[in-house]
Design a protein that fits this description.
3 domains; Nucleotide Exchange Factor Grpe, Chain A, domain 2; about 65% helix; 5 helices; 3-stranded mixed beta sheet; 3-stranded antiparallel beta sheet
Length: about 190
Amino acid sequence: MNPKDNIEKNKDVQKKNISNPKNKNNASQTNTSELQKTVEELKQKLKDVEDKLLRSLAENDNLRKRHEKETEDNLKYATKNFALSLLPATDNFQRAMNSVKNENVEENKVLKNLVIGIQAIEKELGDALEKNGIKKFDSLDQKFNPELHQAVSKVNSDKPDGIIVEELQKGFMIGDRLLRPAMVIVSMGSEKK
């Protein structure tokens, strides 16, 4: 067939479609159903894209919150190593104070001034640690907790079993985490005869 014949044939088909109302209805119904199908497909694609977008936004928000928490924790616990290196100094100040007998302090003016100086330095060091979120905690007369205490010995005492009777070294917290456990002696209860 030559191209002119094809053109003529198409014109004839178009004339029949125009003159025949049944063909118009079929064509319009076909176009309407195809349009509805396309609209439904587009609605589904839009819904999928919205869902993906919402999930991405939620994931980004979670990442942002996690990053903020990590940054906050890093700042909060950045002083850990520095604080650990200062704790022996606080222990030594405490030992120095415990080694001085009170009756000797009142008699000797030089010793009294030395004790006052040691107390002042110990207080300043404690305040500096506390300003940076490092706090000591008391363990004496508390129930032994292996998460907070390091037991070095058990002794018989008039206190119930499991109660701390002596604190050899203070424990410290940094924020809500344990920096150093308290070194303690724990009661085994009264001696059995």
